[in-house]
Structures are given as C-alpha cells and as structure tokens.
C-alpha cells in the first residue's frame, strides 16, 4: 500500500491504480456483515433494489406485496453495530400503492427527488420523493416485467418498458405519454437495459430466447439480434441460429464502460457479448442456475481489475470474473431464492433481496489487524541506546 502511495506521489503511477487495487481487494473479501442490518419492512419477497447514483446513500426496495421502501444506508450513529433505517415507505395503506408485485424500482439518474416503479398491476409510476405521491402514472395492457431509464442520456427522457406484450414501450417523461413502440420480439419482454455508453442504444431480452439491440432514433429500430452461434448455423435447426439462449432470456446488464453486455437465461447460462459487434465472446461461466420465471436483477463491479459480476444463484449470490468466467465465490446467507442484488460502488458494498423477505448487506472484510505479540517482541527499554531515551522530566517529578 505504501509503495502505491509513494509511486502515485512521485508521478510514477496512474492515480487510478491505487483505487482499482483497493476496490478489487474489497470485492474479493466481501462477507455477510454481522454488524449491519437492514430494517425489515417487507412482509413478502424482495424483488428489486436500487441505490441512487448521486450520493450512493439512499436505497429503494420493491416487494411482492406491492410495497416500496426507502432506506438510508449511512451510519449516522457512528456505532460499530447499526441498522439501516427505513426513512419512509409506500405501504399497503397508501392510497397509491401498487396493487400487485413491484418488479422494478429505479432512481432518477440525476436527482434523488424522483424515482420510478413498475408492477404486475400493469402500471409504471413516477414518484415525487418528497411527497411520496405519484407525479405520473403510465398504464399498459399487460403485466410490466421491467423498466429502465438511461444513466447517461442528456437529450431524451425515455423510459423503456418490457411487458407481457412483445412490443417494447417507450414512455417520454417530458410529454407524459408513450412516444413509440419497438416491434420485433415474439413473446413477452422480460428485461430492458439502456447502454451505459450510448444514450440512444437499448437492449431488450424476451421469453422468445432473443436479445435485440435497438437505436431508438431509427425508424426500423432494431440494430441486431444477438446470435449465440455468431452466424454459424446450428446443426439442430436454422431457427436456433438467431437466438441468444436456449430458453427464456430474463436478465441484462451492461458493463460500466458499455463495451460489453451480459445476459442470463433459463437455460442456466450466462453469456458475454461485444455490444458494438454483437459477437458472442464465448466466455464460459459454467452452469448459472436460473429458475426465475420473470426478470432477474444482477449487477457488475465498478473500477476493479478484473471486473466482477454478481448473479443471484438459488439462495446464494455467485461472483464471477466477467472476462474469464471464473467463479470466485458464493455468498451464502439468505434462506430462500435471491431475486436481486445491487452494488454501492463508492465502498464496494453489495446488497441483496430475497424471497425470505430480507435485505442483506455484504461488506468488505477489514484488513487483518497487527498481531498483539509484535509489541512483545520489541526490545526492552533498557537495551535502547541511551541517546534515544527520553531525558525530559515529567511534571510529576517536579517540585
């Protein structure tokens, strides 16, 4: 560590290198925090989590009971053991609560004054955080599985919405209406994700085994359909050649630089794609257990070397290196199926939500303390050179 700091001060090393090394160390030492609890509010499974990107302090959760909770993650008490308190919630008694399961919550990317939620009750709601009242409600014909706002957009305020319909809906926050639809999928759209690099590029995943990339400015819309065989015809059938997975595709996540896209499907596979060429990179992650019939929320690390993916895997969370496919560890602590996980990138802390109604905090382990016996091994005071001994008199000796 001192070598890193010295090289950085001397201008011999990239200033980011120290941060990257520490971020990587923290991810590799993630463990269930025994001193930090997240207040239990949900009476049924937790489906979705999101931490606001402005301060990284406030977290939203959405549950199968339709309830939405807002948590403060900061330890204001400064005590070693504390509970992340719920600041407020949209509970069952709230007049505008979702009637059915909340599938996705997301903060407005540039301001904590607004957040969004979508539900099996066929609605997408835009909430004013201060009043906890919906500023806008979008209604759809079918169940809403997923929605997403671009983290980098400056020229549009579009929310992509995946529903039971094969058509991808785009809702415009400025006009308060559904601006247009993207047609191409054959079954329900289970996951949507805007590129973290290009504000007009959108990825969508469907139960039809396909993942499509769209440029929402184009009239034709679809840029490409990802092909797990990279254009080589499958021996079993030509139909399988244009699919991303051999089952329902229910999870999408761009890497933070936007250069790659991760997908997960019910064929128990995770795949890494080059987002500009659409090529399957053929990284082998082994079996990635995925029994979810709806959207699966997973996430990736930020500022590490190598980068990692955190993927719900039954009642555990599997941690993989993104570009080599190595399974690093399995985080165990939940009693039932994990539905979602989200990373707090400032401190490399992970939060996960499960069917067991709990939200767990996974915190980097502290560095090993210096053993006590080191001080015992130091030479006794009388063996020191007299020149180094304290010759000053104390106040007790005076008088």
Descriptive overview:
By secondary structure, the chain is mainly β. It has a domain of about 260 residues: Methylamine Dehydrogenase, Chain H (7 Propeller). Helix content is about 5%, strand content about 40%. The strands form eight sheets. Strands 1-29-28-27 form a four-stranded antiparallel beta sheet. The protein has a four-stranded antiparallel beta sheet with strand order 3-4-5-7, with no helix packed on it. The longest helix has 14 residues. The chain is globular. The protein starts with a helix and ends in a 22-residue tail after the last helix. About 5% of the residues have low confidence.
In brief, what are we looking at here?
This is DNA excision repair protein ERCC-8. It contains three helices and 29 strands.
């Amino acid at each position: 560590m001192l070598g890193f700091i010295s090289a950085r001060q001397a201008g011999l090393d990239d200033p980011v290198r120290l941060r990257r090394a520490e971020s990587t160390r923290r991810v590799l030492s993630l463990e269930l925090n025994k001193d930090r609890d997240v207040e239990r509010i949900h009476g049924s499974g937790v489906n979705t989590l999101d931490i606001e990107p402005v301060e990284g302090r406030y977290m939203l959760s959405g549950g199968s009971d339709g309830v939405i909770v807002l948590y403060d993650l900061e330890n204001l008490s400064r005590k070693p053991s504390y509970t992340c308190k719920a600041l407020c919630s949209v509970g069952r008694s709230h007049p505008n609560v979702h009637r059915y399961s909340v599938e996705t919550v997301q903060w407005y990317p540039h301001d904590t004054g607004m957040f969004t939620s979508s539900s099996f009750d066929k609605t997408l709601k835009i909430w004013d955080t201060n009043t906890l009242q919906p500023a806008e409600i979008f209604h759809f014909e079918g169940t809403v599985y997923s929605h997403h706002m671009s983290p980098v957009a400056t020229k549009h305020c579009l929310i992509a919405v995946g529903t039971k319909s094969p058509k991808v809906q785009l809702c415009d926050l400025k006009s308060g209406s559904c601006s247009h639809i993207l047609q191409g999928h054959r079954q329900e759209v289970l996951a949507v994700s805007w590129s973290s690099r290009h504000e007009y590029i959108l990825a969508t995943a469907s139960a039809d085994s396909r993942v499509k990339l769209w440029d929402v400015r184009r009239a034709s819309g679809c840029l490409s359909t990802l092909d797990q065989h990279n254009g080589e015809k499958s021996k079993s059938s030509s139909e399988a050649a244009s699919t991303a997975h051999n089952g329902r595709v229910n999870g999408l996540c761009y890497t933070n630089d936007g250069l790659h896209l991760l997908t997960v499907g019910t064929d128990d596979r995770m795949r890494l794609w080059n987002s500009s060429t659409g090529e399957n990179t053929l990284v082998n992650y082994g079996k990635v257990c995925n029994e979810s019939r709806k959207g699966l929320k997973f996430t990736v690390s930020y500022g590490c070397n190598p980068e990692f993916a955190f993927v719900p895997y039954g009642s555990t969370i599997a941690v993989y290196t993104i570009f080599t496919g190595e399974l690093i560890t399995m985080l165990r602590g939940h009693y039932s199926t994990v539905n979602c996980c989200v990373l707090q990138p400032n401190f490399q802390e992970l939060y996960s939500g499960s069917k067991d109604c709990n939200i767990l905090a996974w915190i980097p382990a502290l560095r090993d303390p210096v053993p006590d016996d080191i001080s015992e091994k130091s030479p006794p005071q009388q063996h020191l050179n007299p020149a180094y001994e304290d010759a000053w008199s104390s106040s007790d000796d005076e008088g």
